[in-house]
Amino acid sequence: MTDLRLPGNQGISMRSPAGNALETAASPSRVSVPDFDAVYESQVDFVWRAVRRMGVRLADMDDVVQEVFVIVHRRLAEFEGRAQLKTWVFKILVHVVRHYWRAHQRRPGDRAAEDPAEIHALAADHEDGPAATLERVEALRVLDRLLAELDEDKREVFVLAEIEQMTAVQIAEIVEANVNTVASRLRAARQEFEKAMLRFRAHELRRQP
Question: What class does CATH assign to 9-110?
Fold first, then answer.
């Protein structure tokens, strides 16, 4: 994975419509600014995993993850500690991924599911042996196919709730919706996911000799 650390005092010239849209005119009270390297180390695995589950194509993941951390670096001075750091980073991530889909005119799930680079990355992260690694890769491929059947709003809340184990309040803050809306989206997402799972299982049964 590309090392995205940025020197603490280095100016960031990289700007994008997604990053500019996230700039705010607020002037928060002065608090201790988190160290970027520490934030990167604690959040990069989570960001990489979440970007993948959000359906970003493998070929684009480095660019999307880098964009997330460029914005994190630019906005660290705004972090006031009112929310958990992970929640704050995820809110940035969601905005970046939404912009990615708009810019590329793609839908979640339009990604290379059979790229061998992903297998090697997973094998490096897990030392359970080749059989267990291949089983995990296949499970992730199935998960991606099922998640691809959800629209953007439902996919977001499903990933946040079911995979990242966030609360409804945290999700509402991230997706900028009220808790009732989040609950409604999540309920619909779970129903659609179950139907997709049933269709997948029926298809697999038909394929068996």
Answer: mainly alpha
